[in-house]
Amino acid sequence: MKFTFTSWRILSSIILLFSAFLIVNGQPKEDPKQLEKEISKAGNNTQKVELLIRLSDYYLTKEGEIKSDIDKANQLRQEGQKLSNSLGYKLGTGKLMLLEAQITREKGDSKTAQKKTNEALSYAIKNNLSVLPDIYRELCAYEGYEEEDFRKKIKYLELAVPLYKKYKFFKKEGDALKDLGDYYSIIGENQKSLELLENAVNIYKSIGFKELQGVYTLMSGNYGILQNAQMSLQYALLAEKTAEYVDDKSYQWCTIYNHLGLAYYDVLKYTQAFANFEKSLDLAVKYKNISDINVLTYNLASLYCQQKNYRAALRTLKRTEKTYPPTDELTKVRQLFMFTICYSLLKQPHKAEPYYQELLKKYKESEVGLYYKLNGIIIYLQNSGHAEETYAYLEKFKEFAKKSNQLILYSQIELLTYQSDHANKKYESAIKHLKQHQIFRDSLFNMEKLKHSEALELQFETEKKDKNIKLLTHQRKLQEAKIQNEKVIRYVFIGSILVLLLFAALLYNRSRLKSNANKKLESKRKQIDEQNEQLKKLLSEKEWLLKEIHHRVKNNLQIVISLLNTQSAYLDNEDALLAIQNSQHRMHAMSLIHQKLYQSDNLSTIDMSWYIYELIAYIKECYSSEKKIQFTMDTEKVFLDVAQAVPMGLIVNEAINNTVKYAFPDDRKGEVKVSFKSVENDSYELIISDNGIGLPKDFNIDETESLGMNLMRGLTDQLDGIFSLENEDGLTIKITFKKNIEMETSK
């Protein structure tokens, strides 16, 4: 019995990130004594108003919830308000109106605070004040934590960001983009979230802001949800490195350790995952953050469950169950769910039943934590001998999945349906659902599940063959009875017409000869049919094996790329990093071929127009933040076999990479044209040209030590082609080679 960890990862990331950022972002960095000195020296002018606002904000956002700090903040605000009104300083008045709303919210009166924020909004819009984007950000604080609430927050921030940019408040623009990325991640738009977070990083770097660990942690979480384990680990490690570099002493380490644990889990490094979860939990306990304690306890227990160590998962849950009981409904549901499945999968339904009953009760009361309720109920019923009762809950699960439309939910439904069908001995249906689950989880290819599917399929085929054998035996007996009846009739006929004995003998002899001929023909027909079936089976197996080989080769190349990517995080040598990057690009060029062959019904040829487009798109993505290069592609739909496609792909990879790196120095704009077409005499022509700086005038291709240039020439020789360069108004590389005739004849 199995279940997935990925969906738990999503919720764990969101909950922990939320609590951590609320704590970290609230820590002020002003020096109150210095501000007080400046206020005492300032006259009754707008400068003094701004200083009073800064000091008031310091006491408002100071760590801890001390009443005297809030009172001090309000006193300074009132002083500033009085002076601003006397000066007619509209910007100061707008800022102080916002500050009053924030102080009111901090006191716990959210309703009045929201009203004051809207008053500040109207005043700022009317007077066109630069405090307007800050007010939009404040409005986010009055929304809840449902998806609709987060979408409202997104609308406020999308109004704030361009205003921050307009007024050149770069730090606040970066903060707003970070929050916006966080909210998009929560509603499941992770790619959009990554784009916003990249923009935030660029802004922070442009102003020299170095405390980027929070943004990197968010990016790690997004990549993890998108199942890009390598990038998730890369940004989690970058968050850790950045936090150490800036000497971060805050609670944000709790979030960093959690994401490191999740990222290490995704690359199957369970020891490191456990270690980081434990460190994160220690911090949560130190700060007595009950919600994070419950999230991390759940993460550890989930990881134990994934390794089928359910007893260790139970020990982990019981460690914090009494000391830090969950306070919110969702966490209570998750805890009940975990106890239910642990006892169920340990085949202890009597211990699981109390938790199951409570889970069932909550299921009937509300839809909070519906994913966990449905999973827990179904797994309990499957393991307690009531698998036939699971189908109604599976239908509810499908309705829930349609609303959220997340692939991981469909994958989980197919897996649970397979388990129910298997428990009910519906093997044919079980095979179908298991295969569908494997399709959903192809990126996390699991050989164990494939073997289980094959074993189940074998079991089903065996039963089917047993039925066929029984049917054939029955048909044989009928045939024997029929033959016996024919003999009796023949002998009666011979005995009854003695006069026609000679004619009957001749007729009988003729009948026997014909019968023997028919039997021989029937025997040969059966042999031919059997051979045809065997050939079909062998052909099918061959195609499956070829696809499997391409899939494995693609996966192995991706693993090597990932290993090189991970290794590059620990290298400082630019030549080594460049060599690793070049190797990754070459391996990706080959990986694309095997990926296309695996996904295609045609296992022998590659559509090079698609391949060149995908390869250039990948290279553009690799250099998107550095180069301003326009690519123009003019390619025909040409199909090449693997023997020609691989060297061809490597040539394109080398040429484009060299062009991007060297043709346009100093961030110059430029254009690269790629043409690949059929020409006369059954030949193909590849032309890659650019309007860059070209090669040095004294460049000699026969004396060059460039690996890329030599590699392209060598690969052209492998294609039996002609390689030429034209160094005028940029560089043009032309390669002409013949069509593979063997491929044509093999078709």
Automatic annotation (TrEMBL):
Annotated signal sequence range: none
Q: Which reaction does it catalyse?
A: ATP + protein L-histidine = ADP + protein N-phospho-L-histidine
Q: Which InterPro entries match?
A: HATPase_C_sf, HATPase_dom, Sig_transdc_His_kin_sub2_dim/P, TPR-like_helical_dom_sf, TPR_rpt
Coiled coil where? 514-548
What are the record keywords, sorted?
Answer: ATP-binding, Coiled coil, Kinase, Membrane, Nucleotide-binding, Phosphoprotein, TPR repeat, Transferase, Transmembrane, Transmembrane helix
TPR repeats, residue ranges? 254-287
Where is the chain membrane-spanning? 488-508
Please report a single Pfam family linked to this protein.
Answer: HATPase_c
Q: Among its keywords, does the record have Metal-binding?
A: no
User: EC annotation?
Assistant: 2.7.13.3
Which superkingdom heads the taxonomic lineage of this protein's source? Bacteria
Record domain Histidine kinase/HSP90-like ATPase: where: 643-741
Enumerate the PANTHER family for this protein. Answer: ETHYLENE RESPONSE SENSOR PROTEIN (PTHR41523:SF8), TWO-COMPONENT SYSTEM SENSOR PROTEIN (PTHR41523)
**Identification of the protein by name:** histidine kinase
